[in-house]
Design brief:
Elements: E1 3-4, H1 6-12, E2 22-27, E3 37-39, E4 42-44, H2 54-61, E5 64-71
Parallel strand pairs: 1-5
Antiparallel strand pairs: 2-5, 3-4
C-alpha cells in the first residue's frame, strides 16, 4: 500500500530514520483525487490538470492519505 499526506511527509523527511512504531489515521477516496493525472511512473495526486484522466482519478482514489500520525509508546 502506498501512503501519502503531509503528516507522513514530515515524518519521512526527518534527518534521523525512525524505527519507532506509529499509528496512522487517514482515508481513501481523497477529494484531491479529482485533479490526478498520469505521469511516467503512475498517477500523481495534487497536480492541476486541464483534462480529466478517469483512470488516474480512480487510481488516486485508491491511495491512502495520512491525516495524522501518533507515536506509540
Amino acid at each position: 500500500m502506498n501512503l501519502y499526506g503531509s503528516p507522513l511527509d514530515a515524518l519521512v523527511q526527518t534527518s534521523n530514520p525512525s524505527t519507532d512504531r506509529y499509528a496512522l489515521r487517514g482515508h481513501f477516496d481523497d477529494p484531491e483525487a479529482r485533479s490526478c493525472a498520469w505521469i511516467k511512473f503512475g498517477p500523481l495526486i495534487n497536480r492541476p490538470v486541464t483534462l480529466d484522466d478517469a483512470a488516474a482519478v480512480i487510481g488516486c482514489r485508491e491511495l491512502f492519505v495520512v491525516t495524522s500520525i501518533t507515536k506509540l509508546d
